[in-house]
């Protein structure tokens, strides 16, 4: 029984670990200190708790539905209960992590630290979902490994991309807004498709295809953002070899 519990826990955590390794490989030329990366993951776990302090009052006030039975309620729930509270909490903890971080000196660093927070959030959330799935834990773990955890990775890349641009002075007012709005919009659309699939009889396949296409577009966009900031750092070091 104990072995099975460890297996379930490992299945829940593995996707976040793999994605973390992938982003750290991209930052291998000038890696961040391990203690700061670990702090980012811990802040991500805290953001999962912090998001509840935003979503709970919204639901209690009746501003957003606590449940959903049609597409319109699913959209409202996806933004009001998930996307806005969760991405706002992540952004707050990212700011807390980076405001006095002496190692935040490269464009890609913004994405690296945002991913630490995003995957810290995703890991703790995934553990909850997989453990709650009971005997269906394996199917839940596989589906979330393919969709939900990578989605949190993509939201984090968007946040970190615009955070870095704002931090280094590129169109600051626009990017200060986008570092919150872009991940909120992406997260809200993702959840809206997923939740609409649950309440739309006969449309499950259509919504399933839609979420796969949306995640693929997010993947391409985020890959482009990572390459762009990696190139910006390389250009900087070529111009300033002693930096």
Output the helix-strand order. Answer: HHHHHHHHH
Major sheet details: none
C-alpha Rg, in Å? Answer: 18 Å
What distance lies between the first and last C-alpha atoms, to the nearest angstrom?
54 Å
Percentage beta strand: under 5%
Topology:
Layout: H1 2-26, H2 34-50, H3 52-61, H4 71-98, H5 107-132, H6 137-146, H7 148-167, H8 172-199, H9 204-239
Helix pairs in contact: 1-5, 1-6, 2-4, 2-5, 3-4, 4-5, 4-8, 5-6, 5-7, 7-8, 7-9, 8-9
Protein described:
This protein has 243 residues and is mainly α. The chain has one domain. It has 9 helices and no strands. It has helices at residues 2-26, 34-50, 52-61, 71-98, 107-132, 137-146, 148-167, 172-199, 204-239. Helix 1 runs antiparallel to helix 5 (107-132), helix 3 packs antiparallel against helix 4 and helix 5 packs antiparallel against helix 6 (137-146). The model has no long low-confidence stretch (mean pLDDT 95).
Descriptive keywords:
9 helices; 243 residues; 82% helix; mainly alpha
Brief synopsis:
The chain is 82% helix and 0% strand. It is built from nine helices and no strands.
